UniProtKB/TrEMBL annotation:
<dbReference type="InterPro" id="IPR043130">
    <property type="entry name" value="CDP-OH_PTrfase_TM_dom"/>
</dbReference>
<feature type="transmembrane region" description="Helical">
    <location>
        <begin position="214"/>
        <end position="231"/>
    </location>
</feature>
<feature type="transmembrane region" description="Helical">
    <location>
        <begin position="237"/>
        <end position="256"/>
    </location>
</feature>
<dbReference type="InterPro" id="IPR048254">
    <property type="entry name" value="CDP_ALCOHOL_P_TRANSF_CS"/>
</dbReference>
<feature type="transmembrane region" description="Helical">
    <location>
        <begin position="179"/>
        <end position="202"/>
    </location>
</feature>
<feature type="transmembrane region" description="Helical">
    <location>
        <begin position="28"/>
        <end position="49"/>
    </location>
</feature>
<keyword id="KW-0472">Membrane</keyword>
<comment type="similarity">
    <text>Belongs to the CDP-alcohol phosphatidyltransferase class-I family.</text>
</comment>
<keyword id="KW-0808">Transferase</keyword>
<feature type="transmembrane region" description="Helical">
    <location>
        <begin position="114"/>
        <end position="132"/>
    </location>
</feature>
<keyword id="KW-0443">Lipid metabolism</keyword>
<keyword id="KW-0812">Transmembrane</keyword>
<keyword id="KW-0444">Lipid biosynthesis</keyword>
<dbReference type="InterPro" id="IPR000462">
    <property type="entry name" value="CDP-OH_P_trans"/>
</dbReference>
<keyword id="KW-0594">Phospholipid biosynthesis</keyword>
<dbReference type="InterPro" id="IPR050324">
    <property type="entry name" value="CDP-alcohol_PTase-I"/>
</dbReference>
<protein>
    <submittedName>
        <fullName>Phosphatidylcholine/phosphatidylserine synthase</fullName>
    </submittedName>
</protein>
Amino acid sequence: MDDLFPPFAPDPNEPRPRRFKPVPFRMIAPNMITLMALCLGLTAIRLAFEGKFEPAVIAVVAAGVLDGIDGRVARLLKGTSRFGAELDSLADFVNFGCAPALILYGFALFHLKSAGWIVALIFAIAMALRLARFNAMLDDPNRPEWKKDFFVGMPAPAGALTAMLPLYLHFLGLGGDTWAAPAILIYVLAIALLVVSTVPTFSGKTMGKRVPRSLVLPIFLFGVAAFGILISYPFEALVAVSGGYLLTIPVVAAQYRRRAKAELAAAVDEPSGPAAIGEG
């Protein structure tokens, strides 16, 4: 019987095997930024429950800024990962889907009772569907290079920031009373439809890779001026940015159609393989 279970005495000098490999900091830093943005989104929900809509909106805006930074930091440090991409999508759903929907419901949509809650649900679910579609399109190998200049539908941060336009106007003393609730409901529903639509919108991800030397100093001055305006007149700036973004959608859609027609015309004019060989 002793032969079936021989005694085992581990060698005390044998090093213990490592179960987990060390992770480089460049892989952790972008995810920490994403988690900070997620904390801001959850804090915005708490502030909305407490009726503190102004700091709640600022928290969502700050989460949007961090969302624009984490991906660029990951690419700069070469710390992109599948885990980071999934975490970013989950954080975006909370920050730009759940948080704005609950803020808008607590601000005005609750006056419409069930109808207001349904629109808040539609906005949040539309954001989840938009993020799922975006993740699926990343794996499309046949997507033309020029389409990277465009998003399909309104991106999540832009959808959240433009959806809260009624709050910016309220903070400036331009509305937000009970009578405005139906108009806010229609506006939020329209933004939700833009989020899940196939309307092309501006991406800007390919901008800024190379900057001419003559534009470096003007860009610095413009950045300082924009930051100063945002700090000094935050809600006026958010109204201008939201309104300007909405106005650019038809222009960007027309540009997308022109480039799509040019690509189609080039494909039609290009000779096929056998024909090209025969002509040679």
